[in-house]
From TrEMBL:
It catalyses: an organic molecule + reduced [NADPH--hemoprotein reductase] + O2 = an alcohol + oxidized [NADPH--hemoprotein reductase] + H2O + H(+). This is unspecific monooxygenase. Keywords: Endoplasmic reticulum, Heme, Iron, Membrane, Metal-binding, Microsome, Monooxygenase, Oxidoreductase. It comes from Cydia pomonella (Codling moth). It is found in: Endoplasmic reticulum membrane; Microsome membrane.
Amino acid sequence: MLVYIWIAAVLAAIYLYCRQIYSRFSKYGVMNMKPVPLFGNSGPMILRTKCFFEILVDVYNKFPEERFVGFFEFLRPMTIIRDIELIKKVTVKDFEYFLDHRSFVSEEADPIFGRNLISLKGQEWKDMRFSLKPSIHQLPDEAHAPIHSGSGQPDGFLFGSSVERNRRGG
């Protein structure tokens, strides 16, 4: 009987913990897909029906009117930015506040991509950012995020129609 009580207590604790984590976006009014306890929105990836990036595209497309949306990779909350102006703000103006974010590739696995500015952390990131800052701020806005295919037509799915609007100056 005591074993059943302990199992029930552990399950209740896990449930309450997941509920607290998964209510993070709704607490702030950020739209997100309903997560599955312990798996978040990564269920299709675990079942091997979709890869990680297909899940991100699904979350991105589910909320077309939102500037940014929430996503849970297991218990880890992530944000997908949809609005081009917000992307510019985060990647250019407020870039210094976004250090030590998650790396997708380690330096050991891929020495080139693992050493780019997005993958660096801590003081190493600050040093690289400082050395690159003059060259980044001298580039025109179009050069910060190249999104053109070989045909010369904009085709970045994360930027959508905002690319054309920004070209026109609106």
